[in-house]
Amino acid sequence: MSTVLQTEGLVKHFGGIVAVDSCTIDVEQGDITGLIGPNGSGKTTLFNLITGVYRPDSGRVSILGRKATGLESHKICHLGLSRTFQITRLFWELTVLENMIVPVRKVGLRPLFGPGMLGDELDRAMELLARVGLTHLKDERADNLSFGQQKLLEFAAVLMAKPDVVLLDEPAGGVNPTMIRFIMDLIRSLNAEGVTFLVVEHNMSMIMELSDRVIVMDQGRTIADGTPAEVQNNPLVLEAYLGS
Ligand SMILES: Nc1ncnc2c1ncn2[C@@H]1O[C@H](COP(=O)(O)OP(=O)(O)OP(=O)(O)O)[C@@H](O)[C@H]1O
Ligand SMILES: [Mg+2]
Asked: Domains in the chain and their CATH numbers?
Protein backbone atom coordinates (compact mmCIF):
# COMPACT_ATOMS: atom_id res chain seq x y z
CA MET A 1 0.00 0.00 0.00
CA SER A 2 1.29 3.45 -0.76
CA THR A 3 0.54 6.76 0.89
CA VAL A 4 -1.29 9.18 -1.41
CA LEU A 5 -1.67 12.04 1.06
CA GLN A 6 0.55 12.92 3.96
CA THR A 7 0.68 15.87 6.34
CA GLU A 8 3.49 16.33 8.80
CA GLY A 9 3.33 18.68 11.76
CA LEU A 10 0.86 21.08 10.17
CA VAL A 11 0.12 24.20 12.21
CA LYS A 12 -2.37 26.99 11.53
CA HIS A 13 -3.19 29.86 13.87
CA PHE A 14 -6.05 32.32 13.51
CA GLY A 15 -5.11 35.18 15.79
CA GLY A 16 -4.83 33.68 19.25
CA ILE A 17 -6.33 30.28 18.45
CA VAL A 18 -4.54 27.27 17.10
CA ALA A 19 -6.97 25.71 14.63
CA VAL A 20 -4.55 22.99 13.53
CA ASP A 21 -1.81 22.04 15.92
CA SER A 22 1.04 19.87 14.75
CA CYS A 23 -1.23 17.64 12.74
CA THR A 24 0.24 14.56 11.12
CA ILE A 25 -1.92 12.22 9.06
CA ASP A 26 -1.48 9.85 6.17
CA VAL A 27 -4.01 8.43 3.78
CA GLU A 28 -3.38 5.12 2.05
CA GLN A 29 -4.15 4.53 -1.58
CA GLY A 30 -7.47 2.80 -2.17
CA ASP A 31 -8.82 3.47 1.32
CA ILE A 32 -11.90 5.30 2.45
CA THR A 33 -10.54 7.15 5.48
CA GLY A 34 -12.97 8.87 7.84
CA LEU A 35 -11.94 12.08 9.60
CA ILE A 36 -14.03 12.87 12.65
CA GLY A 37 -13.83 15.13 15.68
CA PRO A 38 -15.98 17.57 17.66
CA ASN A 39 -17.06 20.93 16.19
CA GLY A 40 -14.10 23.24 15.87
CA SER A 41 -11.50 20.48 16.14
CA GLY A 42 -9.80 21.64 12.92
CA LYS A 43 -11.08 19.24 10.25
CA THR A 44 -12.08 21.86 7.69
CA THR A 45 -8.96 23.90 8.40
CA LEU A 46 -6.88 20.78 7.75
CA PHE A 47 -8.68 20.37 4.39
CA ASN A 48 -8.00 24.06 3.68
CA LEU A 49 -4.30 23.60 4.42
CA ILE A 50 -4.08 20.53 2.21
CA THR A 51 -5.91 22.16 -0.70
CA GLY A 52 -4.14 25.50 -0.72
CA VAL A 53 -6.99 27.62 0.66
CA TYR A 54 -4.65 28.58 3.52
CA ARG A 55 -0.91 28.35 3.82
CA PRO A 56 0.25 26.49 6.92
CA ASP A 57 2.31 28.41 9.50
CA SER A 58 4.54 25.37 9.55
CA GLY A 59 4.56 21.73 8.54
CA ARG A 60 4.44 19.84 5.27
CA VAL A 61 1.94 18.37 2.84
CA SER A 62 2.70 15.79 0.18
CA ILE A 63 0.28 14.43 -2.40
CA LEU A 64 1.03 11.28 -4.40
CA GLY A 65 4.65 11.60 -3.42
CA ARG A 66 4.97 15.20 -4.58
CA LYS A 67 5.69 18.18 -2.34
CA ALA A 68 2.45 20.15 -2.08
CA THR A 69 2.94 22.48 0.91
CA GLY A 70 1.37 25.88 0.29
CA LEU A 71 0.60 25.25 -3.38
CA GLU A 72 -2.38 27.07 -4.86
CA SER A 73 -5.66 25.17 -5.17
CA HIS A 74 -5.49 24.63 -8.93
CA LYS A 75 -2.00 23.15 -8.60
CA ILE A 76 -3.24 20.75 -5.94
CA CYS A 77 -5.96 19.74 -8.40
CA HIS A 78 -3.31 19.11 -11.07
CA LEU A 79 -1.52 16.80 -8.64
CA GLY A 80 -4.67 14.67 -8.54
CA LEU A 81 -6.49 15.81 -5.40
CA SER A 82 -9.92 17.50 -5.40
CA ARG A 83 -12.38 18.40 -2.66
CA THR A 84 -15.90 19.48 -1.83
CA PHE A 85 -16.74 22.22 0.67
CA GLN A 86 -18.66 22.06 3.94
CA ILE A 87 -20.82 24.88 2.56
CA THR A 88 -21.50 23.85 -1.04
CA ARG A 89 -19.76 26.00 -3.61
CA LEU A 90 -21.38 26.30 -7.03
CA PHE A 91 -21.84 28.94 -9.70
CA TRP A 92 -25.39 29.64 -8.58
CA GLU A 93 -26.58 31.50 -11.66
CA LEU A 94 -25.14 28.95 -14.09
CA THR A 95 -26.86 25.75 -15.18
CA VAL A 96 -26.11 22.31 -13.82
CA LEU A 97 -24.22 21.37 -16.99
CA GLU A 98 -22.27 24.64 -16.99
CA ASN A 99 -21.27 23.96 -13.39
CA MET A 100 -19.68 20.72 -14.59
CA ILE A 101 -17.68 22.37 -17.36
CA VAL A 102 -16.64 25.76 -15.95
CA PRO A 103 -14.41 24.57 -13.07
CA VAL A 104 -12.42 22.34 -15.42
CA ARG A 105 -11.80 25.33 -17.66
CA LYS A 106 -10.99 27.59 -14.73
CA VAL A 107 -8.47 25.14 -13.40
CA GLY A 108 -7.04 24.86 -16.91
CA LEU A 109 -6.85 21.10 -16.77
CA ARG A 110 -7.31 20.91 -20.51
CA PRO A 111 -6.69 23.30 -23.37
CA LEU A 112 -9.73 25.37 -24.27
CA PHE A 113 -9.49 24.54 -27.95
CA GLY A 114 -8.46 21.47 -29.83
CA PRO A 115 -10.06 18.60 -31.66
CA GLY A 116 -12.74 16.85 -29.66
CA MET A 117 -12.02 18.78 -26.46
CA LEU A 118 -15.48 20.15 -25.83
CA GLY A 119 -16.97 16.85 -26.96
CA ASP A 120 -14.90 14.90 -24.43
CA GLU A 121 -15.80 17.26 -21.63
CA LEU A 122 -19.46 17.16 -22.50
CA ASP A 123 -19.47 13.39 -22.67
CA ARG A 124 -17.80 13.12 -19.28
CA ALA A 125 -20.10 15.75 -17.75
CA MET A 126 -23.20 13.95 -19.03
CA GLU A 127 -21.87 10.60 -17.85
CA LEU A 128 -21.24 11.96 -14.35
CA LEU A 129 -24.60 13.75 -14.22
CA ALA A 130 -26.28 10.45 -15.10
CA ARG A 131 -24.32 8.76 -12.34
CA VAL A 132 -25.59 11.20 -9.70
CA GLY A 133 -29.11 11.21 -11.16
CA LEU A 134 -29.15 14.83 -12.32
CA THR A 135 -29.43 14.35 -16.10
CA HIS A 136 -33.00 15.66 -16.22
CA LEU A 137 -31.85 18.87 -14.48
CA LYS A 138 -28.88 19.65 -16.74
CA ASP A 139 -30.36 22.95 -17.98
CA GLU A 140 -31.69 24.03 -14.58
CA ARG A 141 -29.93 26.83 -12.71
CA ALA A 142 -27.90 25.55 -9.77
CA ASP A 143 -29.79 27.76 -7.32
CA ASN A 144 -33.07 26.05 -8.31
CA LEU A 145 -31.86 22.64 -7.12
CA SER A 146 -32.71 21.15 -3.75
CA PHE A 147 -29.99 21.21 -1.09
CA GLY A 148 -29.20 17.53 -1.62
CA GLN A 149 -29.07 17.93 -5.40
CA GLN A 150 -26.65 20.83 -5.00
CA LYS A 151 -24.36 18.59 -2.94
CA LEU A 152 -24.55 15.88 -5.61
CA LEU A 153 -23.73 18.44 -8.30
CA GLU A 154 -20.68 19.67 -6.39
CA PHE A 155 -19.55 16.06 -5.93
CA ALA A 156 -20.00 15.32 -9.64
CA ALA A 157 -18.17 18.52 -10.64
CA VAL A 158 -15.20 17.52 -8.50
CA LEU A 159 -14.98 14.26 -10.44
CA MET A 160 -14.58 16.09 -13.77
CA ALA A 161 -10.87 16.48 -13.02
CA LYS A 162 -10.52 12.68 -12.70
CA PRO A 163 -8.95 12.97 -9.24
CA ASP A 164 -7.03 10.12 -7.64
CA VAL A 165 -7.86 11.43 -4.16
CA VAL A 166 -11.12 13.13 -3.12
CA LEU A 167 -11.68 15.04 0.13
CA LEU A 168 -15.34 15.36 1.13
CA ASP A 169 -16.31 17.85 3.86
CA GLU A 170 -19.58 16.64 5.39
CA PRO A 171 -21.14 15.04 2.30
CA ALA A 172 -24.19 13.99 4.35
CA GLY A 173 -24.65 17.24 6.30
CA GLY A 174 -28.31 18.31 6.18
CA VAL A 175 -29.17 15.56 3.70
CA ASN A 176 -32.13 13.12 4.04
CA PRO A 177 -31.55 9.40 4.77
CA THR A 178 -32.33 8.22 1.22
CA MET A 179 -29.84 10.70 -0.20
CA ILE A 180 -27.25 9.65 2.40
CA ARG A 181 -27.60 6.03 1.18
CA PHE A 182 -27.19 7.22 -2.39
CA ILE A 183 -24.05 9.22 -1.52
CA MET A 184 -22.58 6.24 0.38
CA ASP A 185 -23.17 3.96 -2.62
CA LEU A 186 -21.57 6.55 -4.89
CA ILE A 187 -18.47 6.81 -2.68
CA ARG A 188 -18.23 3.01 -2.53
CA SER A 189 -18.53 2.51 -6.27
CA LEU A 190 -15.97 5.23 -7.05
CA ASN A 191 -13.67 3.70 -4.46
CA ALA A 192 -14.04 0.31 -6.14
CA GLU A 193 -12.85 2.05 -9.34
CA GLY A 194 -9.71 3.22 -7.54
CA VAL A 195 -10.56 6.63 -6.07
CA THR A 196 -9.14 7.21 -2.57
CA PHE A 197 -11.37 9.15 -0.15
CA LEU A 198 -10.86 11.23 2.98
CA VAL A 199 -14.30 11.98 4.40
CA VAL A 200 -15.18 14.42 7.18
CA GLU A 201 -18.57 13.58 8.71
CA HIS A 202 -20.53 14.02 11.91
CA ASN A 203 -22.86 11.16 10.91
CA MET A 204 -21.21 8.41 12.95
CA SER A 205 -23.15 5.45 11.59
CA MET A 206 -22.26 6.54 8.08
CA ILE A 207 -18.56 7.01 8.83
CA MET A 208 -18.25 3.76 10.77
CA GLU A 209 -19.98 1.79 8.03
CA LEU A 210 -18.10 3.41 5.16
CA SER A 211 -14.54 3.78 6.41
CA ASP A 212 -11.65 1.35 6.23
CA ARG A 213 -9.94 3.48 8.80
CA VAL A 214 -10.89 6.46 10.97
CA ILE A 215 -8.73 9.37 12.13
CA VAL A 216 -9.98 11.44 15.07
CA MET A 217 -9.06 15.08 15.66
CA ASP A 218 -9.47 17.15 18.80
CA GLN A 219 -8.21 20.70 19.29
CA GLY A 220 -6.23 20.63 16.06
CA ARG A 221 -4.44 17.36 16.75
CA THR A 222 -5.02 13.74 15.85
CA ILE A 223 -5.92 11.84 19.00
CA ALA A 224 -6.78 8.45 17.51
CA ASP A 225 -6.30 6.51 14.32
CA GLY A 226 -7.51 2.98 13.62
CA THR A 227 -10.29 0.77 12.39
CA PRO A 228 -13.85 1.95 13.08
CA ALA A 229 -14.12 -0.57 15.94
CA GLU A 230 -10.84 0.52 17.51
CA VAL A 231 -11.75 4.17 17.37
CA GLN A 232 -15.23 3.61 18.80
CA ASN A 233 -13.71 1.81 21.79
CA ASN A 234 -10.98 4.38 22.39
CA PRO A 235 -11.62 6.25 25.67
CA LEU A 236 -9.77 9.34 24.39
CA VAL A 237 -12.33 9.66 21.62
CA LEU A 238 -15.29 9.41 23.96
CA GLU A 239 -13.68 11.97 26.23
CA ALA A 240 -13.12 14.40 23.34
CA TYR A 241 -16.78 14.22 22.35
CA LEU A 242 -18.10 14.46 25.89
CA GLY A 243 -15.83 17.37 26.64
CA SER A 244 -16.98 19.38 23.65
N1 LIG B 1 -11.04 31.69 8.76
C2 LIG B 1 -11.02 31.57 10.08
N3 LIG B 1 -10.78 32.62 10.89
C4 LIG B 1 -10.74 32.50 12.23
N5 LIG B 1 -10.94 31.34 12.88
C6 LIG B 1 -11.18 30.25 12.14
C7 LIG B 1 -11.24 30.29 10.70
N8 LIG B 1 -11.49 29.05 10.24
C9 LIG B 1 -11.59 28.26 11.31
N10 LIG B 1 -11.41 28.97 12.46
C11 LIG B 1 -11.41 28.44 13.84
O12 LIG B 1 -10.52 27.33 13.84
C13 LIG B 1 -11.04 26.28 14.66
C14 LIG B 1 -11.20 25.03 13.81
O15 LIG B 1 -12.27 25.24 12.91
P16 LIG B 1 -12.66 24.22 11.76
O17 LIG B 1 -13.69 24.88 10.93
O18 LIG B 1 -11.44 23.75 11.10
O19 LIG B 1 -13.29 23.03 12.61
P20 LIG B 1 -14.11 21.75 12.14
O21 LIG B 1 -13.50 20.58 12.80
O22 LIG B 1 -14.23 21.74 10.66
O23 LIG B 1 -15.54 22.02 12.80
P24 LIG B 1 -17.01 21.61 12.28
O25 LIG B 1 -17.17 20.15 12.60
O26 LIG B 1 -17.92 22.44 13.12
O27 LIG B 1 -17.10 21.92 10.83
C28 LIG B 1 -12.34 26.79 15.25
O29 LIG B 1 -12.04 27.35 16.51
C30 LIG B 1 -12.76 27.87 14.26
O31 LIG B 1 -13.55 28.85 14.90
MG1 LIG C 1 -15.78 21.80 9.34
From this structure: 1-80+163-244 (3.40.50.300), 91-161 (no CATH)
Compute, in angstroms, the gap from residue 38 CA to the centroid of ligand 2: 9
Whole-model pTM?
0.94
How far is it, in rounded angstroms, from Cα 242 to Cα 244? 6
pLDDT in tens, 33-87: 999 999 999 999 999 999 999 999 999 999 999 999 999 999 999 999 999 999 9
Quick check: 112 pLDDT over 50?
A: no
Query: Which residue minimizes the CA distance to atom 8 of ligand 1?
Result: 45
Neighbours of 146 (CB within 10 A): 12
Nearest CA, atom 17, ligand 1: 44
Ligand nearest to the CA of residue 217, numbered in listed order: 1
